[in-house]
């Protein structure tokens, strides 16, 4: 994927960056000239991805506050700066009715999906962005503003992340822009249980006639992180193939 945006001389950190959307984002930023620091829990995958991208890598769990502090400091130390933060790491557990949700797993969902983005942004702010500026992009979901079966914990935590995005955008301006990207159904391992059994049926019901690919999200992140979006903050860019407008979509032959 060739990006029209130039990030030469800038450094980025991407969480959950060894597969799916995170890997696509890390690649897109690298191809556009940024040096990228990747993180994920699997140390070997982090090493491999960092080597592939010619960047840096620090394995760890975003649920661990100490890791997030180390990550920001590591990026500044290894890459010399920290201009872009992409909070992508997430969990979709507990999956199922909320009346059956384990409170400890529910708490973990908020730790990973909401608290970790806040903590990493705090550390990036203190380590670099307070003095030099920067941009933060949070990966949310188009489902954050509506409800659905079995995804109550995920949707609720992502709704909180959406609000956090707007709150931080107000608090950190004008030095730092904070935005989010809300994907629809994307071909990732995290969502495989949704798309794999009925991909053709799902695609047929979307105005753009296919489910999303990680690169679709990466292009949106690249734009928001770039100077092309320098007057955009507190925004949520929905990348969903028309999911929200499909009620007006007239199926061919219908």
TrEMBL record:
Keywords: Oxidoreductase. The keyword Transmembrane helix does not apply. Transmembrane segments: none annotated. GO terms for molecular function: oxidoreductase activity. SUPFAM superfamilies: NAD(P)-binding Rossmann-fold domains (SSF51735). Gene3D superfamilies: NAD(P)-binding Rossmann-like Domain. InterPro entries: NAD(P)-bd_dom_sf (IPR036291), SDR_fam (IPR002347). Belongs to the short-chain dehydrogenases/reductases (SDR) family. This is SDR family oxidoreductase. It comes from Streptomyces cupreus.
């Amino acid at each position: 994927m060739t990006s029209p945006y130039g990030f030469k001389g800038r450094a980025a950190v991407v969480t959950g960056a060894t597969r799916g959307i995170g890997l696509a984002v890390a690649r897109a930023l690298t191809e556009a000239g940024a040096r990228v620091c990747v993180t994920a829990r699997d140390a070997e995958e982090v090493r491999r991805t960092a080597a592939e991208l010619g960047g840096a890598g620090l394995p760890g769990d975003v649920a661990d506050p100490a890791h997030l502090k180390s990550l920001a400091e590591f990026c500044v130390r290894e890459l010399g700066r920290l201009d872009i933060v992409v909070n992508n790491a997430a969990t979709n557990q507990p999956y199922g009715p909320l009346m059956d949700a384990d409170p400890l797993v529910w708490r973990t969902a908020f730790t990973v999906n909401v608290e970790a983005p806040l903590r990493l942004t705090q550390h990036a702010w203190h380590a670099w962005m307070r003095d030099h500026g920067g941009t933060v992009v949070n990966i949310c979901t188009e489902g954050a503003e509506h409800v659905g079966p079995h995804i109550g914990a995920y949707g609720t935590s992502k709704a909180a992340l959406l609000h956090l995005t707007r709150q931080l955008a107000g608090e950190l301006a004008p030095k730092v822009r904070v935005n989010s990207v809300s994907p629809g159904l994307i071909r990732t391992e995290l969502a495989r249980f949704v798309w794999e059994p009925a991909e053709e049926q799902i695609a047929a019901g979307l105005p753009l006639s296919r489910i999303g690919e990680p690169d679709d999200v990466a292009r949106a992140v690249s734009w928001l992180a770039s100077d092309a979006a320098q007057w955009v903050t507190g925004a949520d860019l929905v990348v969903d193939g028309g999911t929200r407008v499909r009620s007006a979509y007239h199926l061919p032959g219908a």
